[in-house]
Write a structure and sequence with these properties.
Elements lengths: L1 E13 L5 E8 L10 E7 L8 E11 L3 E11 L7 H6 L9 H11 L3 H7 L11 H13 L2 H9 L6 H11 L3 H7 L12 H10 L7 H19 L4 E2 H12 L3 H13 L3 E4 L2 E4 H18 L8 H15 L5 H12 L2 E6 L5 H16 L3 H7 E5 L2 H11 L3 E3 H5 L13 E8 L7 H10 E11 L12 H8 L4 E4 L11 H9 L14 E5 L2 H17 L7 E5 L8 H12 L8 E4 L2 E4 L3 E4 L13 E7 L10 E7 L2 E6 L6 E3 L2 E3 H4 L4 E8 L9 H8 L2 E9 L1 H9 L9 H8 L2 H8 L25 H5 L9 H18 L4
Parallel strand pairs: 3-5, 9-13, 9-14, 10-11, 10-12, 12-13, 15-26, 16-24, 16-25, 25-26
Antiparallel strand pairs: 1-2, 1-4, 2-3, 4-5, 6-8, 7-8, 17-18, 19-20, 19-23, 20-21, 21-22
Length: about 800
């Protein structure tokens, strides 16, 4: 390790998400083996000021294109001393209220090294002849000096790494340590900051394990876990208290106090013995009101005869014949402001979408240019949108691109949608947050159609939007039940429907024209996949048509290991090959890759699959540290080393990531190592990704397990909020014209009117509702639950 010192000239790059920066430093002291007056410094830094002198600790590294750089592990401001520099520093903007005379007084009392002395012992501030306001300013300024590196060094012993420390710093800035000392459980919503870390800090700071802060923290931690890991937007109060007790061993009445306190603070909403974090509850509540807004739009006034004729003409154009339920779905789409179309593979969803567009074009009289302007098509992923474009002939985009969403879903540039019709495909993939943004953007669209398969996996994000909309029976819904598509006698579609109904496991192991099963244990899965892939390539399958699917990344049969094997089969490295390494993965020219997170700045989104077309290319802009250029469905994107943190190889991908895509050949791998993931909807979703051939590899009992376990229903507020908000009379109106609507889901009786508890900023500001609503019942309810659990035990 070595040290360099210099003045910050400029910040040429910074990542707001992790505080990584590239700096240009004017050196104020010589650096061994380096001749220039300035140097580039990289690392994770807090707030820095141009013109300030800093000392960096780290090492010189040689960049393949930019030469010597300094990779810093730590940074601290160089404090001035002597020659009037201390007075100048103390009277700067860093210390509001301290002028030159006051600064001179401080130096006179403490000497020329007063800054270093005060930083080492801030208690000396109390002895200075200053006003209280000036003392506070001086203390605040001292805390801001080197606050990030100081914070990291103090938090590291408690398991907090630099990335998490950076996120904490971004939340609280130079108040971070002070905030943690008062309540280390407050920032549990910060990614990577765990309840265990908070507990360790609490012990260090002398906070009691039975404190109210800890009880509140455990409630938040349990609700965050349910939301993030399971997509659940509420927990039953009894279940919540039991989970929090298992986490903390806190008395149940203390945990009940925690729930009540969080309700008072507006961080938790509890209704009908259900507890939710405020944000997801408000999101689901807002969805209800947005749905109501859309449903209030007047139906189109086309005559039945006009609609029937338009459908008949669409049938003639497409050379097909729609069955009654398909015709009803088209009628709903062109007359109702909002409608839903759901069905499994082969049920004709795509054919119906084409029929809707043809019928609407005829009814409106649009020419081709007008149709293109008024038809809005979108899907959650790039591949699903591309497929939608191919089958309809109209442009389809990802929902993010359609809305113009910024980083992390920010809606600063949210576009207002206008047109005759908006059709969203693959709706089962849409979570509550994206759905709320979508609804808010629909300002002047006459017809909105949500399309999908409700039996597929729910969204990776929170909620179960599509299934909840159907179960609520508030929107005109057509459920397609007849299978129309079986390409060339394909047996995959019948298999998918049989699996969805809980078929006999023996059906999976049959060898048929379209699918087969290869039994093997976890250790042999990779070898079997390699042999199948080589055979498929030899038989004429293009490499891009072969997709391996799995449930998890880890393990002998996991995605990571399978990608290692498949990369060497499909894209072996040569002696002259350029490679780039990131997070223990190697990227090569022509690799198939998958984007893991949204990056709106570069126009790529979670789940998009691309191909590497250049490795460490020569770029005109020397400031860009470009490692790869990837072609994502015709869009060439230059990626830096940091960007590679959100990129992985895609020869094998998870079943979740495959949603919205179809592949000619799917190799599906399941073993008992995936036990926790083995559910029927996972197996069903995987099977429906195969358009031509399916090879299942793994343990028979793993496939049988997946078939047997229907899967836990996600606990979400949306379905009961919708049911309760739309009165039975309105529900009957919504059902009118539905020939095949989803059966009504039985849910616990609603004891209170949901509208009394739907908290939104707008309603609170209009004084329509108190943010403290529901407190009286909650207090007694929590106490009663605590008493039951305490007297009868956790199994009560």
């Amino acid at each position: 390790m070595m040290e360099i010192t210099g003045t910050l000239k400029s910040i040429i790059y910074q990542n707001p998400q992790n505080m990584y920066k590239i700096l240009v430093i004017d050196l104020t002291s010589p650096v061994p083996d380096y001749d220039d007056d300035e140097i580039k410094v990289t690392g994770t830094f807090g707030d820095l000021e141009e013109g300030q002198e800093y000392q960096f600790t780290g090492q010189l590294v040689t960049h393949p294109r930019y030469g010597l750089q300094f990779q810093a592990d730590a940074c601290q401001a160089v404090l001035p001393s002597g020659d009037g520099s201390v007075e100048k520093y103390l009277s700067s903007d860093k210390f509001p209220g301290i002028g030159e005379k006051t600064a001179a007084k401080i130096v006179q009392q403490l000497g020329p090294d007063s800054l270093k002395s005060l930083q080492a012992d801030p208690s000396q501030v109390a002895q200075l002849d200053l006003t209280q306001k000036q003392k506070d300013s001086l203390l605040a300024g001292l805390k801001s000096i080197d606050s990030f590196d100081d914070l990291y060094l103090k938090l590291a012993p408690f398991g907090v790494n630099k990335k998490v420390a950076a996120r904490l710093y971004q939340k609280f800035h130079d108040q971070t340590l002070q905030k943690l000392q008062v309540n280390p459980y407050e920032p549990l919503d910060v990614t990577g900051y765990s309840f265990k870390m908070a507990d360790q800090l609490a012990r260090h700071f002398g906070i009691k394990m039975t404190s109210l802060e800890r009880a509140e923290g455990s409630i938040i931690a349990v609700l965050l876990q349910a939301l993030g890991a399971d997509g659940e937007t509420y927990l039953d109060l009894e279940d919540l208290l039991k989970r929090a007790n298992e986490l903390t061993d806190c008395p149940f009445d203390r945990l009940a106090d925690g729930v009540n306190s969080l309700q008072e603070k507006g961080k938790v909403v509890a209704v009908n013995n259900r507890a939710s974090l405020k944000q997801p509850y408000e999101v689901e509540s807002n969805i209800v009101f947005e749905i109501e807004r859309l449903l209030k739009t007047k139906d189109s006034d086309y005559e039945d005869a006009e609609i029937s004729e338009a459908i008949e003409n669409a049938e003639a154009r497409l050379e097909i014949s729609y069955d009654p339920e398909q015709k009803q779905s088209i009628k709903n789409a062109v007359t109702k402001p909002v409608s839903i179309l759901t069905g499994g593979p082969g049920s004709g969803k795509t054919t119906i979408i084409n029929g809707i567009l043809l019928a609407l074009k005829e009814l409106t009289g649009f020419d081709e240019e007008e149709a293109e302007d008024n038809i809005l098509l979108a899907a959650p992923t790039g591949r699903a949108a591309k497929r939608m474009s191919e089958v309809t002939g109209y442009q389809a985009r990802t929902i993010h691109r359609l809305l113009g969403l910024g980083i992390d879903g920010g809606d600063a540039d949210l576009k207002e949608l206008e047109g005759e019709i908006l059709i969203i495909d693959e709706m089962s993939m849409v979570d509550i947050y994206l759905f709320e943004k979508l609804l808010e953007a629909i300002k002047n669209v006459k017809h909105v159609v949500f399309v999908g398969d409700k039996d597929q996996l729910p969204s990776v994000g929170a909620g179960n939007v599509f299934a909840d909309l159907i179960a609520s029976r508030t929107i005109p819904t057509t459920k397609l039940t007849v299978v129309h598509r079986q390409k060339d006698g394909s047996t995959i579609i019948p298999l998918a429907h049989a699996v969805n109904q809980g078929a006999n496991p023996e059906m999976l192991t049959q060898k048929t024209k379209s699918y087969s099963f290869i039994p093997c244990g976890p250790r042999n899965v990779a070898s079997a996949v390699e042999q199948i892939t080589r055979a498929a390539l030899k038989s004429g399958f293009p490499a891009d048509d072969i997709q391996v699917l799995g449930a998890m990344y880890r393990g002998e049969s996991g995605i990571t290991h399978l990608n290692d094997v498949l990369q060497n089969v499909i894209n072996p490295v040569s002696e002259t090959s350029k490679v780039v390494e990131a997070h223990q993965e190697q990227f090569r020219l022509h690799d198939r890759v998958l984007q893991l997170q949204n990056n709106p700045e570069k126009g790529i989104y979670n789940g998009e699959i691309g191909k590497v077309i250049a490795v460490e290319p020569e770029m005109e802009d020397e400031d860009d540290d470009i490692k790869l250029i990837v072609n994502f469905d015709g869009k060439e994107v230059a990626l830096t080393q940091l960007d590679l943190n959100n990129l992985t190889r895609a020869y094998a991908i998870t079943i979740h990531k495959s949603q919205g895509s179809e592949f000619p050949l799917v190799i599906l791998c399941l073993t008992m190592q995936n036990y926790i993931m083995l559910k029927r909807n996972l197996l069903y979703t995987a099977i429906t990704r195969a358009s031509s051939k399916l090879v299942m590899v793994g343990e028979e009992r793993a496939f049988a397990q997946a078939l047997a376990v229907k899967g836990n229903e996600r606990r979400t507020n949306l379905v009961w909020l919708l049911k309760d908000h739309f009165k039975p009379e309105e529900g009957k109106k919504a059902d009118k014209g539905q020939e095949n609507s989803a059966p009504e889901e039985k849910i616990p009786a609603v004891e209170e009117k949901a509208e009394d508890y739907i908290l939104t900023g707008a309603r609170i500001s209009r004084a329509e509702i108190s943010p403290m609503v529901g407190m009286a019942d909650l207090v007694q309810g929590c106490k009663n639950l605590a008493e039951i659990v305490r007297t009868k035990g956790p199994g009560a």
